[in-house]
Design brief:
The structure holds two protein chains of two kinds.
Chain A: H1 2-17, H2 43-51, H3 58-61, H4 82-85, H5 88-97, H6 131-142
Helix pairs in contact in A: 2-6, 5-6
Chain B: H1 2-14, H2 37-44, H3 51-63, H4 73-77, H5 80-83, E1 93-95, E2 100-102, H6 104-116, H7 126-137, H8 150-164, H9 174-178, E3 185-186, E4 189-190, E5 201-203, E6 208-210, H10 212-222, H11 233-245, E7 256-257
Parallel strand pairs in B: 5-7
Antiparallel strand pairs in B: 1-2, 3-4, 5-6
Helix pairs in contact in B: 3-7, 6-7, 8-11
Classes of the chains: A mainly alpha, B mainly alpha.
């Protein structure tokens, strides 16, 4: 009974999740001025997301003020001081979809599900980060005020 | 002159090679050149290279009779160091009967089916890796020499299209890492040019020998893109493109990689 119920739930779930609804947002200039969730993010959670190699993946390419992380990337600017260089709205657009700023960028679009080819089934229809996670990352980056942290 | 300098300065500032260009012949480097000295030494010595265990197994299989025909590879091909020299440097090769390029593993399995009347060996099985490593070892030091005829060129183009296409949830192409950013570090480790010179390789992370297609599936999984099944034509075309991109570079099989 339990097994059959579970199997049914599993069989149904892809149809339910397949197209996660993304929050709508407006781009103004090179920024998304308004929070995707309508609320501010949590910088502590944001730091954990950025440092996590399976969740944020940021340190594959970037380095930043993470003395505890030995392995960091050199393919992208150091994140230190990002909050002095950019407003929260500018940071939000860069996380949501960097190709809107530089079409040739290697930075993945973290909050976009359309226009992607051959996504593996486990990730199809899902953004890399959800709206809440994007806001947490923006809140964390905004705290990086000084290039020498 | 001025403009040239400014462009060069900008490139250095950005810290990356200009996007969208294939690597110039003189700039090509094997994954070997990016490795720590100790890992290079492991590859260099026949007694320290773990891949040689598979090569030795392959040598035994080469001489062993198999299948309904009860014939060994050696019964048809004789002495491998002579008959197999340079063969792996030409693969994948266009097969006129099948009308498509096949890789070296598929060539070995064709011989098993047609000449030995034996079952094909599964991809990544110990025996197929051993035979492939043994055959490719006979080309060590030989320059990669993919054919330049029309049907081969068409498959190379198909492979190249896959190489430059963005794919997966991370929206990356192979070229963005291996053509545009090979001088950088991904998560602290050197990113290389993705040269196919050493396969099958002993990868320290795998603790085993593995094929080029296994490596390609690793990259695709990292990009969160669909990874075609081992043996899929798409992967053979990609192998063929990589080998044509490495034309003239010496075969290193069995290479060691981190």
């Amino acid at each position: 009974m339990l097994v059959a119920g579970l199997a049914a739930a599993l069989a149904c779930s892809p149809a339910v999740d397949a197209r996660a609804e993304l929050a709508s947002y407006a781009v103004v200039g090179d920024a998304i001025p308004v929070s995707l969730t309508g609320a501010g993010g949590d910088p502590k959670k944001g730091r954990a997301i950025v440092a996590n190699r399976q969740v944020g993946l940021c340190l594959l390419c970037h380095s930043g003020p993470f003395p505890e992380e030995r392995f960091q990337g050199t393919l992208a600017p150091d994140l230190s001081g990002a909050g002095s260089r950019w407003s929260p709205g500018q940071l939000r657009l860069r996380i949501v979809d960097s190709t809107r700023i530089n079409p040739a960028t290697i930075m993945p679009p973290y909050y976009r599900i359309d226009g992607l080819e051959r996504v593996t089934p486990a990730f199809t229809g899902k953004p890399i980060l959800n709206a809440e996670q994007v806001e947490d990352v923006v809140a964390y980056l905004a705290t990086l005020r000084d290039a020498k942290q | 002159m001025r403009i040239g300098h400014a462009a060069a300065a900008l490139t250095i500032l950005a810290g990356i090679v200009p996007a969208g260009a294939e690597i110039a012949t003189a700039q090509r480097k094997s994954g070997y050149d990016f490795m720590a000295r100790t890992t290079q030494a492991m590859q260099d010595g026949d007694t320290s290279n773990p891949g040689m265990l598979w090569v030795l197994d392959g040598a035994a299989l080469w001489d062993r009779k198999a299948g309904a025909a009860n014939r060994s590879c050696a019964d048809c091909h004789g002495d491998a160091p002579t008959s197999m020299k340079g063969v792996a440097a030409r693969y994948p090769e266009f097969n006129a009967t099948l009308g498509r390029p096949i890789n070296i593993e598929q060539r070995i399995n064709l011989c098993r089916a047609d000449r030995q009347q034996a079952k094909p060996l599964p991809y990544e099985s110990k025996d197929l890796l051993a035979l492939t490593a043994f055959v490719a070892r006979q080309s060590r030091g030989q320059p990669i020499a993919i054919a330049e005829d029309e049907p081969t060129r068409r498959s190379v183009e198909t492979g190249r299209a896959a190489f430059v296409r963005r794919q997966g949830q991370l929206n990356l192409s192979c070229a963005q890492c291996h053509d545009d950013n090979w001088s950088g570090r991904l998560a602290g480790n050197p990113l290389t040019q993705g040269q196919p010179t050493g396969y099958p390789i002993y990868r320290l992370e795998w603790q085993s020998l593995g094929s080029l297609q296994r490596r390609l599936r690793n990259c695709l999984t990292g990009m969160r893109a669909e990874a075609p099944a081992l043996g899929a034509q798409e992967l053979v075309d990609l192998e063929l493109y990589l080998m044509s991109r490495a034309r003239g570079m010496p075969i290193e099989t069995p290479a060691v990689r981190p």
